[in-house]
Amino acid sequence: MTQVFNFSAGPAMMPREVLEQAQEELLNWQGQHTSVMEVSHRGKLFMELITQAEKDFRTLYHIPDNYKILFLQGGARGQFAAVPMNLIGEKGKALYLTSGHWSATAAKEARLFCEVDEINILSEGAELKVDRLDFSDIADQYDYVHYCPNETISGVEIFDVPKVGNAVLVADMSSNILSREVDINQFGIIYAGAQKNLGPAGITIVIVREDLIGKARKATPSIWNYEVQANSDSMINTPPTFAWYLCSLVFKYLLERGGVKAAEKRNQEKAQLLYDYLDQSDFYHNFVAKNNRSLMNVTFTTGNDELNMKFVSQATEAGLQALKGHKVIGGMRASIYNAMPIEGVKALIAFMEKFAAENR
User: Fold this and answer.
1) Where is pyridoxal 5'-phosphate bound in this sequence (predicted)?
2) What's the pLDDT tens digit per position in 290-335?
3) Domains of the chain, CATH where assigned
4) Is 238 known to sit in a ligand binding site?
5) Residues 149 and 169: beta-carbon distance below 8 Å
6) 3 state SS of 134
7) Model pTM?
8) How far lies 176's CA from each of 194, 195, 251, 256, in Å?
């Protein structure tokens, strides 16, 4: 049987070792002869699990003590609404830096709750690139500044942190959290859906500075109110216990393998290998400027829609799954999150070489 590598943009592949442990414990977790899904979320064993999960995540990402970590539901889209409901104050408006589909979608949602100024920081000429990141001259007039450091659809990543002076910086890191080291102190809020680097779909992590908690507008539903959630251990309702458990296993898996620093090194090696091949190819093309090429989502095309469809079909038959590009831009997309081994990238390149030779 051909070895299968899953290049899905999300829900994405998870570490095999994590899934094997979950499989082994599925019917007998902690010697209870029940699944983790069947025990009380407020019971002693599960409370110990979430306490350790927060500790491990805090260690992994070097999260300071003055930040709360919330394990919520609703995905990043839920946070598109929760952020303005919790942060909009006397200034009454927010600045959104848009660099692609998801940052623009976040800005659209925020307009339901506040005044939004939107600045497109993506140049869409021969190459996609981010031109401007210094907004320190205007940021103070906003309650917060929001951006998305990695756009999964186009494969554009912003490696430098925008300059916003003393303003609150909010980042949607759904697709690159734990993929490389960041200075948490530069952010007021970081949020991320789990289904790319953290675990399965169904849980969302919010890292929020403590001084930003307790400012939600009165009409904010309790499930989106950071203060209510922080005071309730993220459990004002029954949480997605199995997803939380799987995240806890991923955190331990990463810690055992050198943490985020080591993961970043592996991610750089994988991405460099694939981009080096694309750069020397006259058959495939990537249209992202080198300084903004995503470590997580590598987009490419043959320039021919029919040939692209053929590529995706034959790649799937060869055990290289989910390489079809997003419908917004077409082409192909290889998502190579933390769990993707370098062997998967090598297998993809070998297939790309064979396909190019057969279809010139």
Assistant:
1) 76-77, 102, 152, 172, 195, 237-238
2) 999 999 999 999 999 999 999 999 999 999 999 999 988 899 999 9
3) 17-256 (3.40.640.10), 259-358 (3.90.1150.10)
4) yes
5) no
6) strand
7) 0.96
8) 10, 11, 15, 20
